[in-house]
Amino acid sequence: MKPIFIAIPLLIASSLAQADNSCGKVTIADMNWSSASLIANIDRFILEKGYGCEAELVPGDTMPTGTAMIEKGEPDIAPEMWSNSMKDALDKGVAEKRLRFAGQSLSDGGEEGFWVPQYMVDKDPSLATIEGVIKSAAMFKHPEDPEKSAFYGCPAGWNCQISSGNLFTALKLKDKGFDLIDPGSGAGLSGSIAKAYARQEPWFGYYWAPTAVLGKYKMVKVDFGSGVDKEEFINCSSKEDCLEPKVTMYPPSLVQTLTTESFAARSPAAYEYLSKRSFKNEKMNELLAWMEDNQADGDVAMEYYLTNNKDNWMTWVPADVAEKVQKALDNL
């Protein structure tokens, strides 16, 4: 009987060790926009193949996913959460130990600004500044009124219409001959950039990143010379009732990976991976452009990214995990 009694503690210890290292079932929010879907698929593959998780993608969107994680404790992971959109609720969830922020999905944050094409700045570096743009206002031909210069704003009904309009006012662009053009839709705005690029013509307007458009068309964000006044932007520039907006660059939007506290506690190794997994906007712009050009969904783009960017993703995980993920890639 003695060998049996010796074996029992060994079995228990082995079982506990496996439980400590086990990731278990994990649900990941697959948000309904391309960058978030790509990141969700990358997380699914790495957690499944590298950490032994039973990973499942579930449909998600910012507000419903954040609310469900706070109230129901699921899904376990929201890979790309634009935190400012429900900041108070998320901060409360963290304070109550329901949620945990793992890290930044986009290391640069969500990026907004007024832009001009790279080819214009290559010819005249002053166009990277608002002073240079204003000085050369006559270059930016209005599509309908030859007496005015064109500034393409954010489409009507979008939140960014408020901030882009207020900053247009703060910069006194109307006094400099510019007309604020409503492109009518996101497609209309991106189409105006594509048209300008095809003809190598001047273009000046609002846009944001990460997007496929800024992956396809190299643009330069115009420097207002003001720096970022976050309080001004939050309290006035982004408000519809802002009567006297002041000049400020757009502050970056916080884009984070959110997990439930229960997931972070039970799967520390997987949580550590999520805390390191991050993308620069320039890289994400390129990936989104590739997805659009190849009509690729998040799953296809995941394989493309992991295959062609080993120098990036291998820094997020230990060597033994990287080896497992690479082996799984080789077998696809």
Automatic annotation (TrEMBL):
Keywords: Signal. Transmembrane segments: none annotated. Residues 1-19 form the signal peptide. One of its GO terms (molecular function) is transmembrane transporter activity. Residues 25-307 form the ABC-type glycine betaine transport system substrate-binding domain. Pfam families: OpuAC (PF04069). It comes from the Bacteria. Gene3D superfamilies: Dipeptide-binding Protein, Domain 3 (3.10.105.10), Glycine betaine-binding periplasmic protein, domain 2 (3.40.190.100). One of its GO terms (cellular component) is ATP-binding cassette (ABC) transporter complex. This is Glycine betaine/proline transport system substrate-binding protein. It comes from Neptunomonas qingdaonensis.
